[in-house]
Amino acid sequence: MSGNNAHFAQFIQHRKQKNWTRNIGDKLRKAGVTLLVFVFCFMMVIPFIWTISSSLKAEREIFAYPPQFFPTEVTFDNYLIVMGQHERIRPQVSLARAYWNSIIVTIPGVIGPLVTAILAAYAFARLKFPARDFLFFLYLVTMIVPIQVLIVPQFMLANALGIYNTHWALIIPYLSVAYAVFLLRQSFMSIPQDLIDAAKIDGAGHLGVIRHVIVPASSATIAALAILLFVWRWNDFTHPLIMLNRRDLYTIPLALSALIQDRENARTGGLLAGTILAILPLFVVFVIANRQFIRSMVHTGVKG
Fold first, then answer.
1. What share of the chain is helix, strand, coil (3-state, %, to 5)?
2. What does pTM read for this prediction?
């Protein structure tokens, strides 16, 4: 009996040592992964912080040697210059005007595709009509066509319609986005049919089903799509470059490009300040929409 107890005690001791060794290995592995993530985050954040810091420096301090990470004297002249509010220096393009132009183009470029995509995705996902799947396939084929191939036809069409060199040339072609329809269709197909049938029993038509069932149940996907559309439209450079040649119509990307060419007035500090101002709305929209995205994920679901 005592021999069995001794073997059992040795077994317990061996298991404790094995568990202790395993715990140490797990902790070291987690510490290594954490350190690696920290290093990568540091490598991505430092250039961004350096850009903010340099945008608040005087021009001579930006190129000072040895370089200083933080400005010795904070100045907002670079921001005033690119916004066209400086007393002495006036760049050829004002970022304040470009901000307004980007807002004019971006807001319809987000709301329009969302509305058309919700309606089209509902039709492809929940309605039955002849050649539905074939039409959806043709719709998806447009996704594999490179944007560069469509630039010349879009330019000729905009010129024929008389909207060339106006913001309408950047709004109308993007009122329908094939990727948005595809993404929402996949989300709508995952919604239980029982919810839709219950809404129809209560007297809801197709628009009522979309408003009270489809959109609330797919709010997470719609929020993510809104972020993507906002980023695409705000950062679009190619199409404004082709469709616009008046400086007072320039969007943010074109204005930054013009500031690069106007180095005498904008200078390096102005370009850095313009970069910060350009990405600021993207950061704000992402933070707001990200909270909505998480909240919608929590409240989305079917309750039994």
1. 80, 0, 20
2. 0.80
